[in-house]
Structure formats: structure tokens, C-alpha cells
Design a protein that fits this description.
5-stranded mixed β-sheet; Beta Polymerase, domain 2; alpha+beta
Length: 153
């Protein structure tokens, strides 16, 4: 899949549980791969040509915000960057093609599901070095500071 994106010169990073695994203290099983990408109109067709079944999720008359790809038992969620923060997160993780630890934390705080909280507790247990100014700015912008304070207290 990443070869398809690279062929289209699309900026992308690994997100979700697979990205969190880079920073967790211990492993966690996941059944899918999440990619955060910049949009290119050729992505759905290129994915189909690569053998994926593609479901496009979009609001009426707008750019898709999600592509759900299936190839047998493999599932890939291609999350399309639609807000400036997502583009910033892609650029910050571009060199390694994975979200930075700060952006994983922000994404997990926004999602706030039990498995996201588990990811956050595991990541924070490693006592990571964090860009606190960046983290604090986006935590405030997304309004997830209460969730963050619960985790770090």
C-alpha cells in the first residue's frame, strides 16, 4: 500500500495502534493498519489497481475523509488529512513515515477509547522525552486537556 502512495507522491505516515507500538512499553495486538495521508484524487483508483477493495467515505460534494481498504483479511484505514493539524502531523512524521510520539499522544487523546487510554498509559510509562510546548498547544486546541491531566496525574 505504501508503494502505491509513494508512486503517487502522496505524503503519508503510519498512525493508530501501529504507530503507538513504536512508543509503548509493551506490545498490543491490532488487526488493522491506519495511514494518515494527504489527498490525491488518484488514490482510490490506484488502490483498486493494486488489488484492494476500496470503500470511500465522504460527505456529499466533499473530498473523502476515509478510505477503507480490504485485501483478503487485511484491512487498511486511509485517513485523509482534512484539518491543518493533520497536515502538521504528517510533516512532523514524514522522515520516518510514522507519527511522532507527541502526535500519537494527541490522536489518542482525541479518540479517548479504552484502548487509546491503554496506549497512552503504556507510552507514558516509558518516561519519554516530549516536546511539551507542541503537545500543550495542540492539547489545548483540541480541548482534551482534562483527559491529559487525568493521565499525567
Amino acid at each position: 500500500m505504501t508503494g502505491v502512495l509513494d508512486g503517487l507522491e502522496v505524503d503519508w505516515v503510519v498512525a493508530g495502534a501501529v504507530a503507538a507500538a513504536d512508543y509503548r512499553a509493551e506490545e498490543r495486538f491490532t488487526t488493522d493498519l491506519d495511514l494518515l495521508v494527504t489527498w490525491n484524487d488518484q488514490i482510490p483508483e490506484a488502490c483498486e489497481a493494486a488489488g484492494y477493495d476500496v470503500r470511500v467515505v465522504a460527505d456529499a460534494d466533499s473530498t473523502p475523509h476515509l478510505l477503507i481498504l480490504h485485501d483478503g483479511s487485511e484491512r487498511i484505514d486511509v485517513i485523509v488529512a482534512v484539518v491543518p493539524y493533520q497536515h502538521t502531523a504528517i510533516q512532523r512524521g514524514a522522515a520516518a513515515h510514522v507519527l511522532t510520539i507527541e502526535d500519537v499522544i494527541i490522536h489518542k487523546l482525541i479518540a479517548a477509547r479504552p484502548r487509546d487510554r491503554d496506549d497512552l498509559r503504556s507510552i507514558l510509562s516509558t518516561d519519554p522525552t516530549l516536546d511539551r510546548a507542541y503537545l500543550d498547544d495542540w492539547i489545548e486546541a483540541w480541548g482534551v486537556d482534562d483527559e491529559w491531566q487525568r493521565l499525567i496525574s
